[in-house]
Amino acid sequence: MPRAFAQDNNGRYLTDGLSESQFIKVFNAVNREQANNRQSAKNTLRPRALKRKSIEDLVKLGKKEDGTAFTADDLKRFDELRKKFRKRTSGSAGITYNELIGSSTEKDRKRASNTSKDGLGIQNAAMIKLERGNVVIARVQASSRSVHQEHRVRIQLLDWAEELEEAEVSEKGYQKAVKNACRGSLKIDCDCGRHQYWFRYMSSVGGYQYGRNLEQAYPKVRNPKLIGTACKHVLKVAQMLQSPIWQRKLAKQMDRQATQVGFTDSGKGSTKTFGERDQKELSKNRSTVITEAQHAKAQAGFERYELRRKAMQKALKGKAGKNLQDSLSKIKRYKQQADKAQQQVRQLKQKLANEKRSALINQIKSNVDFAVNTLGQSRDTVIKGMAKKMNKSVTDIEKLLND
After folding, report:
1. CA-CA distance, 62 to 42, in Å (whole number)?
2. pLDDT tens-digit profile of 70-109?
3. Which of 233, 226, 220 is nearest to 188 (CA)?
4. Beta bridge partners of 126
5. Apex 219 CA angle, 213 and 220, nearest 5
6. What would the DSSP string read from start to end of 245-294?
7. At what angle do helices 318-373 and 292-315 cross, to 10 degrees?
8. How far apart are CA 238 and CA 245, in angstroms?
9. Can you list the alpha helix ranges (DSSP code H) found in 40-170?
10. What is d(CA 336, CA 331) in angstroms, rounded to the nearest whole number?
11. pLDDT given at position 1
């Protein structure tokens, strides 16, 4: 961990007041440190241990929260819960906003909304960066009772690329696409202890853990029944991502990505740090509370989705289902080919636009040099005349000359 950043007496890093880039550097190191510490964890219930039920193996697992020893029935129940949770989306990656909120615990929602009465509520979260094209990074203020100052939340918007491709080429079109992505499939991560010890196993097994720190040790003490979906910090950021204020800022980046040559996870628009000027606008986000009505709506939306998914699974069984799957596979393949062709067209258009702009810049520079060096005119006079002729501002012409 870089020693340049201040620590308290217990070695916890003091992040309050750090710039966005410093904050990210600190938590990248925290992430590596947590991964290293996890390697030396004791009495963890790993997949192999779930299959072993000898007395010696059970003793190695330590004690349950009530102080009693684990039994073979406990391990059998854990394994059944693991299998059930893994099947929840039939192998689909990510967790939708509706499931994330709808299946969360009331305690975590109240803390995320700062309406709990236990002093563990959180007030503020700030979106500070978009990286790799579709990963939102937020810094979340810790509760008044926490030993930490802030936490880092990362949410990957898995539907981003598809929404970008389908979006209408307009400001409203990209805003609608971002809105859909924020309610679509997500992957999550948080550095807090509740995510690490309660929910990271669930997000890893369930296919919605972001990053490489995939947990394989069952939360036998903290969350043996696999209840909930995410910590209060993740719920807070997921809720604030539903705000048009944050979505408008992300839509501008999607617009930039749509015109770039190359990949959406690198290059223009893929990475953006939201600095002090951006934060003035982003801080106006008022979608900070998860109401009971919003929870009920999300819960109902997820239940409808589950019914449709199960009906589709039933329909796909048998010969008719196989024919349908074959047809869907062909459609998917043709769509991928069409998407690739569209991408090539966009790249060609961008290349032509860049060449046209370069030619225009060279022509302007040549005309200015000729007028100043050959005709003896003043540079300011030439630029003003050129700006008037081209119906542009003097500042625009200056930018082109300095390009």
Report:
1. 9
2. 677 777 777 887 787 777 655 578 999 999 999 999 999 9
3. 233
4. 139
5. 155
6. HHHHHHHHHHHHHHH-SS-TTSSTTT-EE--HHHHHHHTT-------HHH
7. 120
8. 14
9. 47-51, 55-60, 72-86, 97-102, 106-112, 160-166
10. 9
11. 41
- Given a cut of 50, the residues of the chain with pLDDT beneath it are 1-2
Buried-exposed string 323-357: b where 16+ CB fall within 10 A, e elsewhere:
eeeeeeeeeeeeeeeeeeeeeeeeeeebeeeeeee
Task: Give the pLDDT of residue 2.
Answer: 44
Nearest-angstrom CA–CA distance, 16 and 145: 15
What SS3 state is found at 391? coil
Residue with tokens 């809720």, as numbered in its chain: 239
**Where do the DSSP E strands lie in 80-164?**
95-96, 125-131, 135-141, 150-157
Q: Is 168 exposed, middle or buried (0-12, 13-18, 19+ CB in 10 A)?
A: exposed
Sign of the Cα torsion 263, 265, 267, 269 reads: positive
> How far is 403 from 399, CA to CA, in rounded Å?
6
Closest C-alpha to 150, from 37, 236, 239: 236
Helix crossing, 318-373 with 394-402: angle to 10°? 100
For the chain, the domains span: 20-308, 334-402
Q: What is the mean pLDDT of the chain?
A: 85
Distance of alpha carbon 241 from alpha carbon 127, whole angstroms:
9
pLDDT at 4: 66
Distances in Å between the Cα of 398 and the Cα atoms of 17, 162, 191, 383, 392 are 37, 38, 47, 8, 10
